[in-house]
Amino acid sequence: MKRRIIVMKNANGSYEVSPVFAESKCEADQVDWEEVIDTFQGVNTSFGFRRASRAAGIMYGCDHEAVRTMDKIPDSDEVWIVIGRMLVRREN
Known about the structure:
Elements: E1 2-9, E2 15-17, E3 21-23, H1 25-30, H2 33-40, H3 46-60, E4 68-70, E5 78-83, E6 86-89
Parallel strand pairs: 1-5
Antiparallel strand pairs: 1-2, 1-3, 2-4, 5-6
């Protein structure tokens, strides 16, 4: 099961961190990760990030989980970062 998170650095230097999007076999059949990526394209504010996270959470069935604010980027199988209104995968 692949675990993905999406992060964005906010104005005060901390990180907005999405819920964990865990890809199980059932979800892999129902959710296209490209749709999630498209949801975050153009995001450049904390409000926009929270809206996109909620929309992606609905796709994954975890829309009840809130965005967290953290001082550093947590570990995950895949980390995607909003940079310059684009979502890019961080290379490990």
